[in-house]
Sequence to fold (236 residues):
Amino acid sequence: MAPVAAIVFDKDGTLTELNSRWVTFFRSIIAATAADGGDPDAEHTLAERLGVGADHLVPGGPAAVKTESELMAIALEHLVNRGWTADQAITSIGVGLEAATFGRLAPLGAVASTVEALAVDHVLGVATSDNRANARSELEQLGIAHHISALRCGDDGGPVKPDPEVLRSLSREWGLEPTRLLFVGDSEQDRDTARAAGTGFVAVVAEPGSEGEPDHPAPSVFGADAWVASIAELVD
Ligand SMILES: [Mg+2]
Fold:
């Protein structure tokens, strides 16, 4: 395997705790949307459709991996299927977005010191489905923005994960073969993106399974080169 010269991180569930940040966010939007539309039951059905549980996002579900515009399209279709007019759905989703409240932003492990150590001899990037403004803000709050050379976001207007072009465009920008890149992410969508782009892939599995063991198959079965509980394990 070619030595890794560049590392690209997914953000949510990889650099930051997924649930503390996003469950509050999605539940606040969904509740306000359902209330505005006068359809209380939609709070439950829309949450289920988007993969938003009471205290966690469904791993790999829409809320965990999709861009805002993709989520809006899913929500719109769901509400119209419930009998809402498209106009009502669009209006109420807008009300929901205005009511959005972020939960706590928490790094997943020793993110700042790890990124600082990796930046010594690697080019670093972030590829996220989140919007650019929020992604930049979170990277600043994590204290790592100055180490991130390139950012690919869900609202850039370019390709989004799982399109391998997300990673290929970074390899071109850095003048590196894709085999010199390592992608670190927490979802099957991240794995598929890495595999299609021809980069290495390390899976972050932060949540233990019910038996106290990680709730996942062996790395090779999942298609990952390795599992880590946090990115701190990338530093040896
Ligand atoms: Mg993720």
About this structure: The CA atoms of residues 39 and 114 lie 46 Å apart. Residues 210-214 have pLDDT under 50 and may be disordered. The pocket of magnesium ion is lined by residues 10, 12-14, 185-187 (CB under 6 Å). The chain has ten helices and six strands.
